[in-house]
Structures are given as C-alpha cells and as structure tokens.
Amino acid sequence: MKTYDYLIVGSGLFGSIFAYEASQKGKKCLVIDKRNHIGGNVYTKEIEGINVHKYGAHIFHTSNKEVWEYIQKFAEFNRYTNSPIAKYKNEIYNMPFNMNTFNKLWGVITPKEAKAKIEEQIKESGIIEPKNLEEQAISLVGKDIYEKLIKGYTQKQWGRPCHELPSFIIKRLPVRFTYDNNYFNDLYQGIPIGGYTQIIEKMLKGIDVRMNCDFFEHREELEKIAHKIVFTGMIDEYYDYCYGELEYRSLKFEEELLDTDNYQGNAVVNYNEYEIPYTRIIEHKHFEYGQQDKTVITREYPSSWQKGDEPYYPMNDERNNELYARYKELADKEDKVIFGGRLGMYKYFDMHHVIDGALKCVKNELEK
Ligand code: FAD
Ligand code: UDP
Q1: Residue 330's pLDDT is what?
Q2: Where does ligand 1 bind, in terms of residues with CB under 6 Å?
Q3: What pLDDT was estimated at residue 140?
Q4: Sequential DSSP letters for 226-270
Q5: What is the sign of the dihedral through the CA atoms of 342, 43, 96 and 175?
Q6: What is the model's pLDDT at position 2?
Q7: Model's pTM, two decimal places?
Q8: Minimum-distance ligand 2 atom for the alpha carbon of 158
Q9: Average pLDDT for residues 49-78, to the nearest whole number?
Q10: pLDDT in tens, 130-141
Q11: Could you give the CA distance from residue 161 to residue 164 in angstroms, rounded to a whole number?
C-alpha cells in the first residue's frame, strides 16, 4: 500500500531540498504541487532570452557559508548586488537608507552630519520606545525618510497603516552611514546564471513529481501512499482552519514585454508614494546583465488575500503569531507529518532561511 517513504507537498525550495536529500539517502519520494510548474515562488521562465522571475524579484543573499556552498552545487551565481532605487513624486533616492539617500535628501556630506539630522528628527518626534512600525521607522531614520520612502510603500504593501504593523518588518532594511547602496548586509549575494528553475530541476531529477495536484483534492488517496508527509502548504488549511484563518498578504503581477532594450536602467525600482498602486517595477534582464534587444518588466501590486488567492506573505503580527502557535501545538504532536517552509511554518523567511531549515529538518529526520 505504501509506495513512498515521503509524500512531499510543494515543490518549492523546502520541498525540493527535502526530496533531494532524502533520495540521496535511498528514500523514495513523491513530490506534488498544485501549480503547473516546479519551484514554488523561486520559479523563473525564459522569455525572449531573459530569465523572468515569475513571482517577484528573487535575489539570493546569505551570511551562512554552508548554505552558500550548498546552493552553488546546483547553479553558478553571478556577482549581482541588489541596489534598488526608490521613486517618490519624480525624486529618485538610493536604497537602502545610506549616505547617498541622506545626501540627496538633506545635502549632508559626512556621517556625522547625517546622524545629527536624524537625531534632531527623532528628538522632535518624542518617541522613546518604539511600539509599532511607524515609531520604529522614525526612530531609525527620522520623519523625512519615513514620510517619503516608508509610509506610502509600507501601507500599500501590507494594506494597513504603519502604526498598526509590527516593527520587525522595517528592521529587515539596513540603515548605513556609508556611501553603500547594497540592499543586504550579507557576506554572499548573487543571482543564479540561467535562473532558479534549473536548481529545482536538478534537485528533483529522477524523483517522481506530479504537477496540478492539490493535496486537499486527493487527500485520502495521498495520505495512504506514503509513510510520512512533508507539508509546505498553509498550516491552517492542513488543519481545516479548526482554530480560524491565519492572514496572508497577496500580490498581483502584471508582466509586459517591451520593444526597448532598457526601460528603467535598474533591476528594481520602488514606487514609494501611496497614490501609485504598485510597489515596484522589476526589469528582469538587469539581474543577469542582459544585452537582449527587448525587455520584460513586471509591476507588483500588493493585494488583500482571500481563500483561493496565492498567500505570498504571512502577516506575522501578534494575533496571527498566537493563532499559529496553536496550530504549531497540533503539528508538534504529529509523528507522520512534518511542516516546513514559509507557509508550513508561517514565517517571513528568505530563501537562505528556507534552505538552512530544510537541510536541518531532513538531517534530523534521516538520523532518527
Ligand atoms: P514556496 O516557494 O511558496 O513553495 C510552496 C509550494 O507548495 C508552492 O509551489 C505551492 O504551489 C505548493 N502548495 C501549497 N499548497 C499546496 C497544496 N495544497 N497542494 C499541493 N501543492 C501545494 N527570498 C530571498 O531570499 N530573496 C528575495 O529577493 C526574495 N524575494 C521575494 C519576493 C516575493 C514577492 C516573495 C513572495 C518572496 C520572496 N522571497 C525572497 C522569499 C522566497 O520566495 C521564499 O523564502 C521561498 O521561496 C520559500 O520556499 P518554500 O518552499 O517555503 O515555499
Ligand atoms: N520598505 C519601505 N520602503 C521601501 C522598501 C521597503 O518602506 O522602499 C519596507 C516595507 O514595509 C517592506 C519592508 O520594508 O515590507 C521590507 O522590505 P523588503 O524589500 O525586504 O520586502 P520584500 O522584498 O520581502 O517584499
């Protein structure tokens, strides 16, 4: 009856790494995905010779040497460094917040001048202990940057005003008193030459894979097919929302092929005022220094999430984290199901977190 050791629900990074490592150790795996392609949100597709990041810009970055070496077994990475620009009402600023941003905004030249300007604005705000994203942002970079570069973007992204959002979201962004536009502080960074899909293809080579297969539509049959399940879909859906629904944030992607070789001169341009409904435009060719005659751009529109929509971001505020903790209690009691990845663990993970988590999980599992 049991044809497989593991049924792996989801062919994203978590599921694919688990499947690869378990297969290497002689375990028989079946990977299913409800989408019509492998890779989850890192999926890329070639259009006119350009590798298009179908689910938004994916820039690989990590300080974990083991993760960096691991992922390079599956692709060669280029030297791409993410340095988005932010557009606010026809003004252009460098991201993340650094000396170039401060200079453009206030004309300050030295770190000392920039720090003094920010200090002055923090003092004026009267905030001592930041309690939400708005207060956290003002305490990090002052009111001017908050108003122009954070407030509108964040409200669009999360569908709530900044004073109703948790501060950890903004702490993802570095604030730097050097002239350095690198978005990430990590030691290693790059884009896989040829896109991300090849990585997943290599991981899943020789493993049984079923696309267009939703776990919940075939649950009875699938639960019988394997000794254990690795589940990387939504944990609340797995438990039939028995404690209520977790909240997610969704996105709509609007892709366009343009008859020009260079549309915006940068891979990522953020649109920071609230009135523009998208948060960023990605020009994919720049991730790989493409020289094609044409270009592909994607506008990213944040949107509310309802059942059936793609749950791109978990909303890790207090209410949802408490609800998740209750689902996790159920998960901890399972001996035949393992939950992993962004949706299975309900966490705002980057790729490197997911790789690290998957490697630890599979190691732990196979050593049992
Ligand atoms: P996923 O990639 O979501 O894979 C889960 C898979 O499970 C999906 O393919 C889904 O179809 C499938 N599935 C779900 N439910 C079912 C079901 N019931 N039956 C069958 N299949 C199911 N990280 C970075 O490090 N750098 C970045 O620049 C970056 N940019 C991002 C930009 C955006 C817009 C988003 C949304 C994420 C970004 N990330 C980035 C995060 C990155 O995408 C994730 O960390 C990573 O892809 C998560 O892998 P995963 O396997 O956990 O989940
Ligand atoms: N953010 C902002 N202005 C920007 C870019 C980001 O205010 O120009 C805030 C916003 O709240 C966002 C958070 O910083 O959700 C994290 O940004 P990041 O680029 O890491 O978001 P992701 O790539 O995960 O969507």
Answers
A1: 98
A2: 9-15, 32-35, 40-42, 55-60, 214-216, 232-233, 251, 312, 341-343, 349-352, 354
A3: 93
A4: EEEEEE-S-HHHHTTTTT-PPPEEEEEEEEEEESSS-SSSSSEEE
A5: positive
A6: 85
A7: 0.97
A8: 15
A9: 98
A10: 999 999 999 999
A11: 6
pLDDT 10s digits, 249-302? 999 999 999 999 999 999 999 999 999 999 999 999 999 999 999 999 999 999
User: Which active-site residues does the annotation give?
Assistant: 172, 176, 249, 280, 300, 348, 350
350 closest CA partner among 63, 54, 81: 63
Q: pLDDT at position 368, please?
A: 83
Paired tokens of 132: 């939400």
| CA torsion angle 332 335 337 339 (round to 10) | 30
CA distance 215 to 184: 36
What is the residue-averaged pLDDT of the chain?
97
pLDDT at position 1 is: 74
Q: Do residues 88 and 273 lie in contact, with contact meaning Cβ atoms separated by under 8 Å?
A: yes
Which ranges of the chain would DSSP assign to H, the alpha helix? 13-24, 65-71, 99-106, 111-125, 133-145, 151-158, 168-171, 197-204, 219-225, 235-238, 318-333, 341-344, 351-366
CA-based nearest residue to 154, from 268, 313, 273, 298: 273
* Ligand 1, atom nearest to 215 Cα: 19
Q: For residue 214, which amino acid is it?
A: D
Q: Which residues, 6+ apart, have CB-to-CB distance to 20 below 8 Å?
A: 203, 204, 207
pLDDT tens readout for residues 149-186:
999 999 999 999 999 999 999 988 999 999 999 999 99
CA of 103 to the centre of ligand 1 (A): 37
Q: To test ligand 2's pocket by mutation, which of 41, 169, 175 has the most ligand atoms within 8 angstroms of CB?
A: 169
Residue 14, token pair as written in the block: 């978590």
Which residues does a 6 A CB cutoff place in the pocket of ligand 2? Answer: 86, 95, 149-150, 153-154, 157, 169-170, 172-173, 270, 272
